[in-house]
Amino acid sequence: MSSVPSPALIGRASELRAVIGAMTRPPAVVLVEGEAGMGKTRLVRAALGRLPSGDRAVLLGYCHQIREPFPYGPVFEALRDIAGRLPAAQALNPVTGALRGYLPELSSALPPSPQPLDDPRAERHRVFRAIRALLAAVGPAVLVIEDLHWADDGTRDLLRFLTGQPPEGLAVVATYRRESHGTARSPLGRAYLHQPDTTSVVVPLAPLNVADVGRLAGALLERGDLPPEFVARLHERTAGIPFVVEEMVRSLPDAEEPDALDRAGVPLLLREAMAERMAGLSYAAVGAVQAAAVLRLPAAEQLITSVGGHSAGLGEALRAGVLHEHPGGRYGFRHALAQQAVYDAVPGPDRRSAHDRAMKALGAMDSPPLVQLAFHARQAGDTEAWLRHGTAAAHQAAALGDTALAIEVVEGMLDDPGLPAPDRGPLALMLSRFAATGLSHQRVVRLLRHVLRDDFLSSDARGEARLNLGVVLSNQAGDTAAGRPEIMAALAELSHRPTLAARGWASLAMPEWGTESLAQHEEWMACAESLVATADNPELAAAVLANRASFEMTTGSPDAFAIAATLPAADPRTAVRREVARAYCNLHDSATSLGLYGAAEKFAQKGRRLAVETGAQYPAYLLDVSTIRREWLTGRWEGLRDRAVSLGELATETPLIAVDVWLVLGLLALATGEWEEAVKHFYGAGLDAPDARYVPIVAAAAGGLIDLYLTRGMLDEAVAEAERAVARLRQKGVWVWGANLVPSAVTAFAWAGRVKTAAELVADFGAGIADRIAPAAHAALDAARGALASAECRHADAIGFFARARDAYAVLPQPYSAARAGEGEARARLALGDGGAVAGFTELAERFGQLGATHDAARCRRVLRDIGVEFQLPRGRRRNASALSQREREVARLVALGRTNREIADVLFLSTRTVESHVATVLRKLGVRSRTQVASPASPAAPPVP
User: Fold this and answer.
1) What pairing do the DSSP bridges indicate for beta strands 28-33 and 199-204?
2) Residue 916's pLDDT is what?
3) Residue 141 in 3-state DSSP?
4) 721 to each of 501, 748, 782, how far by Cα in Å?
5) Looking at domain 886-933, does it have CATH number 1.10.10.10?
6) Which of 15, 610, 701, 744 is the most exposed place for a label (fewest CB within 10 A)?
7) pTM (2 d.p.)
8) For residue 852, what are the contacts with CB-CB under 8 A and spacing of at least 6?
């Protein structure tokens, strides 16, 4: 069959209406999902072609399977053709000047570049804002991003930003392949939230049914009388995939022949379909098509002709519809399936020669794409070039901060059975080094364990690989039970390599992990320092110094800041600065635990800058999660749950390194009376296996769980948890970590009548922090003394202790803890009959409410009601009669979580009858008929409770 015209869109009428409807109601987000060949691109193109006439920019960007490390590349690709739509530079938002370096084609149309920012995260946010402002300036616009499943993390983050705060006239359309495991997760991640004022549509594309396959085939063949048997057989052979149906029908010599489909081949018939279409092409055109297949990605004419050697054939291949023109003057296949079919049909020797030509042509470029070079070298059989380009690509990606790509490249090389055995060891070491700064670890761990089981590694390489495996298990995986034995085994193998052994001892010396005493960790640190003193290795010296600074800070040592000041942050060597980035991450975490929030912020700023400069993904992520905890402590709760959920989304493979996130989500749930959620998150923060988890967070989670048990009247459980947690704290000997545990444990012991135990704990805690720089712990000591004094009915003393704690917490600042201490003071005043109690509880109810601690606020309001004082909730300005009041929002949240009226009454200290009335009002205002229809708030997938 010669040439068949492209058919109209078949079987997609409702999907087409949905896409057009969303595009014409901006701001909008349209996600078109489907398997390869399902017609996603054709649907979007058809929708664009049917949009109502008007001045609307259509911006097209593409994600590619083989990608080089270029942040936000698909979006910048889409923006390059908008120069003619921009207003004068002086009319643009000045922030758009930040895009000059990314969009040189538009530099003359953009405002001047702003001064660079010291904080890389702030710089990235400014770039995001600039892109949003640019899109707003050219609106209305449709931004289409194809093949989102191949997008890099930065592009996904940018699209989440744009779809979370879309310009008024922007419609974002993304196509992506549905994940093979069939989950319903958004391609933008679970952190993506549908904005209520944004049109949001997900359009899934399923295979065509038999009738639609018949209509599609009939349109292709320009006839409407196809035999039912032919249509049924065509549907069976093609599985209803539109692209395969089209390619199959185009290759048929005669649909009337009974065995036409059988003779076309199996399975999917794609190879035969493409062979038929190419059969009529000239030798030159076939060469161009095969060159495009070898290159895989859409390529410029010069590159295709360099590989195919036939410049005249490209136009013929385009006219025949075998190749298609892509934006930016590039040419390739309409679909990856077509590319693969042609590629597989090229004889092996010809493929190798073509890959060799591709390697030479790409290598001659000013900035050779190293990932593509490595791919072509491997396919050409040039092992030496493959290793050279592959390792260079990995190092380049790591240097640019794309550690995930660096790991991916090395993993692919180690997975290749053609990799020579002598080269596996160096690559395994490279992989383990990259893994120590990245986030992903599961495949890395499997590969390293496989390499260690083989017997081809030298003893030196084996020891270093095992050491790095242990570090990755302990850090990224958060599994010290598995990681520490590997580190100990590595130390035995590295006995003759003291410099590497020093790194292992320094890793074991970090007291936040394991059950060993602080004295044991000090011995290990001293061992590491004695070994590094004899070595001339700046990177190792920086690593050990980083751990010493972290050690001093986490224990609240008076020497911590002096040692931190000696970190070589300005060293020209990337590896050294990467160790300093890790140190600043640890220092930020420890300073946050100590209550030194100003110092913590400074460490965070330095750490982020160095982490971005050196491609240290792991420290950068830990800075983010510990910042979440600092925001909780300092009272920045607005939007905190959503920010925590977003970070938890990034740790789906490594939930144990996100323990700060689970802790904060647990504490937020506790403050709002979400008991089951709080318990789940506290266990996720480390209480599932406390001896193998991050000790400071485990202690804080235990304090939260004790508070929960006390709130719910479960005194025995509270005491049992306090006993276990305090025993772990005593065993470790780092008392400053008790700031969020000791007051709760003292309260539990005292309420249970074990006043002596409570008094001993207060004394030991005071002695343990006496010479420590730990303002949070010192404030907690006064809070614990207040709890003990209240239990002993020394209410005047309790007032003094709680007042000092309240003031100390306020100075930090730690407003929630200050309010909790203020509540202790108010209760002590109430016990003495002090009239100041009423004012205290009134102020506390307002303060807790402003923070979002709805359960604590309700508890204070309950006290006021009990003593005959009325407390009115702030009403604010009601925009309409259907808006929920503050109390109704509290009730609605608990209804959405599946709570019964009795449970809601317990959380909010209301009568069941009052709750029933509120629930009825909530249902009426929301316009729903059932409790199950009340929308549930977003919540991350935390690790399950064992």
Assistant:
1) parallel
2) 76
3) strand
4) 38, 9, 22
5) yes
6) 15
7) 0.64
8) 637, 638, 668, 671, 672
Q: In this structure, what are the phi and psi dihedrals at residue 665, rounded to the nearest 5 degrees?
A: -65, -35
* Joined tokens for residue 381: 């059989």
Tell me what pLDDT residue 440 has. 60
Beta bridge partners of 204: 33
CATH for 13-204, options being 3.40.50.300, 3.40.50.720, 3.40.50.620, 2.70.150.10 = 3.40.50.300
For residue 263, pLDDT beyond 80? no
Instruction: Report which DSSP code applies to 812.
Output: T
In whole angstroms, give the CA distance from residue 744 to residue 820. Answer: 11
User: Taking residues 339-343, what's their average pLDDT?
Assistant: 81
SS (H, E, C) 292-308: HHHHCCCEEHHHHHHHH
What is the Rg, in whole angstroms, of the alpha carbon atoms belonging to the chain? 32
**Helix (H/G/I), strand (E/B), else coil: 62:** strand
935-946 tens-digit pLDDT: 644 433 333 333
Domain 635-866 is found in CATH 1.25.40.10: yes
Helices (H) and strands (E) in the chain, counts: 44, 8
Closest by CA position to 770, among listed 520, 938, 558? 558
Residue 141: half-sphere exposure toward Cβ, Cα within 13 Å:
26
Q: What is the 3-state secondary structure (H, E, C) of 202-256?
A: EEECCCCCHHHHHHHHHHHHCCCCCCHHHHHHHHHHHCCCHHHHHHHHHHCCCCC
Most confident of the following: 1-5, 344-348, 732-736: 732-736
Q: Is the pLDDT of residue 878 over 70?
A: no
The whole-angstrom separation of Cα 599 and Cα 595 is: 9
Domain boundaries, the chain: 13-204, 210-275, 497-633, 635-866, 886-933
Strand 299-300 and strand 28-33: pairing?
unpaired
CB 788 within 8 A of CB 800: no
